[in-house]
């Protein structure tokens, strides 16, 4: 790595650490870009060169969290854990993390709904939860127990949307409920379907 690139990398890391510390100490909404720049010993303009808006710092944080989850998921699958069990485990971990760091994660999730398409796309690319879920589902497709008429990408994104929207609704309307329990119910509903299954005819197969 060239010296200039190394310096830029170190500067970005310094800004990131300063921002996250301030977010946790003062709150995300209460922290300004000027305060972050001062804590990181850079100019306000330099902060915006690396992060065009405060939420971009959170997207970096979310990307790091997902990288850790990806390693955990791959380890569980390599150990032979059932994919559906791994998926449920992932949702439990996501629920616990969201409840624990609600004030940091929710502004990040709202970026996925940002009316500015550039910012919404940046959030989508920084938080590829759908890709991770598709990776979990792939063995089920190979085993022939997953329907073939929808792509793994679509299924993964649908389940990722289920998590993000459930978390936002929980925070806004039902913060007193157990998010892990809410996610488990929603996940079961999506996996098993909404339609009542016909009971087999008497004596039928």
Automatic annotation (TrEMBL):
PROSITE patterns linked: HTH_TETR_2
Residues within the DNA-binding region(s): 32-51
GO molecular function: DNA-binding transcription factor activity; transcription cis-regulatory region binding
Stretches of the chain forming a coiled coil according to its record: none
Keyword annotations: DNA-binding, Transcription, Transcription regulation
Keyword set includes DNA-binding: yes
Residue stretches making up the HTH tetR-type domain: 9-69
Name of this chain's protein: TetR family transcriptional regulator
Gene source species: Thermus parvatiensis
């Amino acid at each position: 790595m060239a010296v200039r690139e190394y310096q830029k990398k170190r500067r970005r890391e310094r800004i990131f650490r300063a921002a996250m510390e301030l977010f946790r100490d003062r709150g995300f909404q209460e922290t300004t870009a000027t305060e972050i720049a001062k804590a990181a010993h850079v100019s306000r303009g330099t902060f915006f060169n690396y992060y065009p808006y405060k939420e971009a710092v959170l997207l970096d944080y979310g990307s790091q969290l997902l990288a850790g989850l990806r390693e955990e998921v791959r380890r569980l699958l390599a150990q032979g854990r059932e994919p559906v069990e791994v998926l449920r485990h992932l949702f439990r971990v996501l629920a616990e993390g969201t409840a624990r760091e609600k004030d940091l994660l929710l502004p990040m999730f709202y970026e996925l709904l940002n009316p500015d398409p550039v910012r919404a796309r940046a959030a989508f690319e920084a938080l590829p939860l759908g890709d991770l879920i598709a990776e979990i589902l792939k063995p089920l497709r190979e085993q022939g127990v997953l329907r073939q008429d929808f792509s793994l990408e679509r299924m993964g994104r649908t389940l990722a949307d289920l998590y993000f929207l459930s978390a936002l609704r929980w925070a806004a309307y039902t913060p007193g409920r157990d998010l892990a329990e809410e996610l488990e119910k929603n996940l079961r509903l999506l996996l098993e379907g909404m339609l009542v299954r016909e009971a087999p005819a008497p004596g039928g197969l």
